[in-house]
Design goal:
The complex is a heterodimer.
Chain A (H helix, E strand, L loop, with lengths): L1 H32 L1 H13 L2 H5 L12 E4 L2 E4 L16 H10 L14 H4 L4 H12 L11 E2 L9 H9 L13 H13 L3 H4 L17 E3 L2 E3 L15 H10 L10 H8 L6 H11 L18 H18 L17 H4 L4 H9 L1 E2 L11 E2 L8 H12 L11 H14 L1
Antiparallel strand pairs in A: 1-2, 2-3, 4-5, 6-7
Chain B lengths: L12 H4 L2 H21 L31 H14 L14 H9 L2 H4 L24 H19 L10 H12 L11 H17 L11 H6 L37
Helix pairs in contact in B: 4-8, 6-8, 7-8
Chain lengths: 417, 260
């Protein structure tokens, strides 16, 4: 009896010590071998679309990106694989946290806001931790990148101290207790990880987000990223939550097909996000209701520009987009009622007519239809007329476009191609 | 191949003696496969191939001096296309529609030199179904054929050249050429010159105006051809209604803004 009791006691003791050892060991193993955490970090990197800037189309992921043309000069996204020489192999988690939250890299190096730290500053510590753990699991790639290729004086990183003083304050995400959990998740994804405002929020002369007009559309790299607020004329206010989810998930919905920089975003990022997160984003965006400007009346149908534009449209565009501007779902975008078509800034619209574009191809919509370039066939005046026509037909209304506007876009494209 | 027996081992020698060679060949094949594999592009999931600015549109042919014909050849061809398509109540003449300009620009391009055709020997007479089997490019056919026509005219028409003939005389000579009955000197027969002229004149008359003929889309207006339109969804359900859209060329049409 005693012996049995002794044996049980011994067994219990061994079990207990094992548990204690396990408990002590566990945190040490957890970070770099915790599958769930690593996968969460991968998801954070996907939602933040790190790969878009930090990789070349044919290069190793995260090993450094292509040159980014900013109004101030050229910047290149650095190698963020854990390579000790050329990547972030020598970094600590604190270095990454400060980079994302404060725009200050290892050794006090100040970042340029082409790295969207004004958005990432709102990232949660948990997400930064997961991202850090995930980045550690990447294959180290030796690839030296000269990130700062700006001309003098913009190449002086210390300047950014002054810029930050004027335009940036490290902050954190503040949820709105009045709104649902879903809405707040969407707000976090849009404002922090997704950094939607980096493209869609108008910029000040210093290149900082104009937060009074958040997400109301902005022009960069010869594309106009349209309003993604619930503005009914220029934004996506006529889309339902499901229609917006379809756009972000598949690149195509009842109205539109994503192309240009948004095609890359969908391919790398939003098509790989969970349906719940996309629903959260849609819930948040469609609740952004800026005060809409005064109602615009469309140009009269007998206006000379409309008659000329109508002739060009009939001969050149109608075959795909239809006489009624309705296009063909999932193949040719619907021009009637489109926010991009009616945007005050017609840069993207002109660009699409001049240069064509290819829509994104995703697993759910693998076609990726293309629009041919028409700039060789249409003069600046032809393009101005036809763009004015589609902006003022089928209940659309937007300011007319001049041949000079078209000439400017044509020049920018000639420099880029 | 039938494997022969190796005299010493009795094993099939194709395996035995050439095993090393077989392995080497396989390895080379694998290298070749990998190399070609690296060039191949995975298209699924990335959409159709599309590059910005990669289009090579045709250039608008502009009126101006001949680029292939000598002035004399130009006169001859204009006189001929004016008889092949005479001006009447249906359309302007082939000359006024720009057919000679069209032919001239085609002959100075790759059509004239047969750059895109196999033009090495052997050259042997073929069956009619095998088409032209000579080493004559269209440019050579015109150069030598037009000279032969001029010579033939002066020889048989009391020293008159083709351009001096009355319309009736021209038609009579052209009819004789079509039948191959006009005896030309040189390698180009009157029949083959005529059939090439007729074919190219029709091409010039009906091709897009961007290539120099079919001026103002005259032939398209005549026959009701819509031009470079290709989608009629808006008209499919309009039964028993006249289709009223005017034709449009690759280069546009008059109602566009154009200038600017």
């Amino acid at each position: 009896m005693t012996r049995i009791r002794l044996a049980i006691a011994a067994a219990l003791l061994v079990t207990a010590s094992c548990s204690v050892i396990a408990a002590v060991m566990a945190p040490a193993l957890a970070d770099d071998q915790d599958f769930t955490l690593i996968e969460r970090g991968r998801y954070v990197a996907t939602a933040a679309d790190c790969v878009a800037c930090h990789s070349l189309p044919d290069g190793k992921p995260y090993a450094g990106g292509a040159a980014l043309q900013t109004p101030f000069g050229t910047l290149v996204a650095p190698n963020i694989t854990p390579d000790r020489e050329t990547g972030i192999g020598n970094w600590t988690k604190e270095d990454l946290r400060r980079t994302l939250r404060e725009g200050i890299g290892r050794g006090g190096k100040r970042l340029y806001p082409a790295m969207p730290y004004p958005a990432y500053t709102r990232m949660t510590d948990d997400d930064i931790h997961a991202l850090w753990v995930y980045l550690q699991t990447l294959e180290p790639v030796s690839n030296a990148v000269e990130a700062n290729q700006l001309p003098f004086p913009f190449n002086i990183r210390l300047l950014m101290a002054g810029w930050n003083l004027l335009n940036f304050e490290p902050s954190s995400f503040k949820s709105d207790p009045q709104k649902s959990e879903e809405w707040n998740r969407g707000a976090y994804l849009v404002q922090a990880l997704g950094h939607c405002g980096t493209c869609h929020t108008p910029k000040s002369a210093l290149g900082a987000d104009d937060n009074d007009r958040a997400l109301q559309g902005a022009n960069l790299q010869a594309w106009y990223a349209p309003s993604i607020t619930a503005d009914k004329r220029q934004g996506i206010g006529n889309w339902s939550v499901d229609q917006l989810i379809a756009y972000l998930k598949t690149g195509a919905n009842h109205q539109s097909l994503a192309s240009g920089p948004m095609a890359e975003e969908i391919q790398n990022s939003s098509s790989k996000m969970t349906d719940a997160d996309l629903k959260a984003i849609a819930t948040y965006l469609l609740d952004q209701k800026p005060s809409e400007g005064k109602t615009l009346a469309p140009l009269a149908a007998d206006d000379a520009r409309m008659r000329t534009g109508g002739a060009v449209y009939t001969d050149t565009c109608m075959a795909c987009h239809g006489g009624d501007g309705k296009g063909q779902t999932f193949l040719f975008p619907t021009l009637a009622g489109s926010g991009l078509v009616q945007a005050d800034d017609p840069a993207t619209l002109i660009r699409l007519v001049l240069d064509g574009s290819r829509a994104v191809a995703t697993d759910s919509r693998p076609t990726g239809p293309a629009m041919p370039p028409l700039g060789w066939r249409l003069t600046d005046a032809d393009v101005a007329a036809v763009v004015t026509y589609i902006r003022n037909s089928w209940s659309n209304a937007a300011p007319p476009v001049s041949a000079g506007d078209v000439a400017k876009v044509r020049k920018t494209l000639a420099q880029a191609n | 191949m039938k494997p022969s027996k190796s005299p010493n081992t009795g094993q099939p020698s194709v395996f035995h003696t050439s095993r090393r060679r077989f392995l080497a060949t396989t390895a080379m094949g694998l290298v070749a496969l990998t190399a070609s594999g690296a060039r191949a592009k995975l298209l699924f999931g990335t959409g159709l191939p599309w590059d910005s600015g990669s289009i090579e549109p045709p250039r608008q042919v502009l009126p101006g001096p001949w680029t292939f014909f000598t002035p004399r050849e130009g006169e001859l061809v204009e006189a001929i296309v004016e008889r092949l398509i005479p001006a009447d109540d249906l359309s302007v003449s082939g000359k006024d529609a720009g057919c000679a300009v069209f032919i001239d620009r085609q002959l100075s391009g790759h059509y004239g030199t047969s750059d895109r055709l196999y033009m090495k020997g052997p050259f042997q007479p073929g069956l009619p179904t095998q088409g032209d089997q000579t080493d004559l490019t269209p440019a050579k056919t015109y150069r030598q054929g037009l000279k032969a026509l001029d010579d033939h005219c002066r020889r048989t028409m009391n020293g008159k050249s083709f351009t001096d003939l009355s319309p009736e005389q021209k038609d009579k000579l052209l009819t004789a050429m079509e039948a191959g009955e006009a005896k030309f000197e040189g390698p180009v027969g009157s029949g083959s010159l005529f059939s090439l002229l007729l074919q190219n004149t029709m091409e010039g008359f009906f091709a897009d105006p961007i290539y120099g003929g079919n001026r103002d889309m005259v032939s398209w207006k005549m026959i009701g051809f819509p031009g470079t339109r290709y989608d009629y969804r808006d008209h499919v359900l309009k039964h028993n209604q006249k289709y009223t859209l005017p034709p449009v060329s690759i280069g546009g049409r008059g109602d566009w803004a154009r200038k600017g």
